[in-house]
Amino acid sequence: MQNNTLLGILTIILGLLVITFPLFSIFTVSVLAGLGVIFIAIWLLSLSFGSWALNKGVSILYLLFGIMALILGLGLFGSIVAISVLASLWFYIGGFFLIIAGIMGLFAREGTFNKGSNVIIILLGIIYVLLGSWAWDPYFLALIIGLSLIVDGISLFFVNTSEKMESES
């Protein structure tokens, strides 16, 4: 229980820092995302060189993906605009998938409860798309991340260690 409380406090503090310093927080996220993609690019390029003797087609594919990942990683590294655009696109794509799944469910399922749940899915998809339009703004993106951290930190206060151990076993 003590570990969850400490982790909860740290998560809430981190959430408040993200909200207080939004541009620095999004810049940090973009640097970490860029570094992560650059490491993936290095891995793909090493796979390309390592598999050249075995299969030249696969090696060329690794090489192309490695070069694309390197370009993407360098573009993300420290770019607040790039990370905001990618977050926004993620919201749009997820929202459109929810809307389409809800519409398909309206036609594919029977019963009032199923129809109602699909209407809720469509509404959530619309909300998701709206969040995508707001995510273009780095301040709003930092607010979403900060609030998520605060909510997660608060939830850690209510996790019982015995329940956690039962769910892991």
Short description:
With 169 residues, the protein is mainly α.
Secondary structure blueprint with pairings:
Blueprint: H1 2-20, H2 22-50, H3 56-76, H4 80-108, H5 112-134, H6 138-156, H7 161-168
Helix pairs in contact: 1-2, 1-6, 2-3, 2-4, 2-6, 4-5
The major pleated sheet works out as: none
Task: Quickly count the helices.
Answer: 7
Order of helices and strands: HHHHHHH
| Overall tally of structural domains | 1
Strand content: under 5%
How far apart, in Å, are the first and last alpha carbons? Answer: 18 Å
How much helix, percentage-wise, in residues? over 70%
Overall shape: it is extended
The average pLDDT value, as a whole number, equals 81
Number of strands: 0
Rounded Rg: 21 Å
Low-confidence stretches: none
Label the structural class. Answer: mainly alpha
InterPro entries: DUF308_memb
Keywords: Membrane, Transmembrane, Transmembrane helix
Protein name: DUF308 domain-containing protein
Transmembrane segments: 7-27, 33-54, 61-83, 89-107, 119-136, 142-159
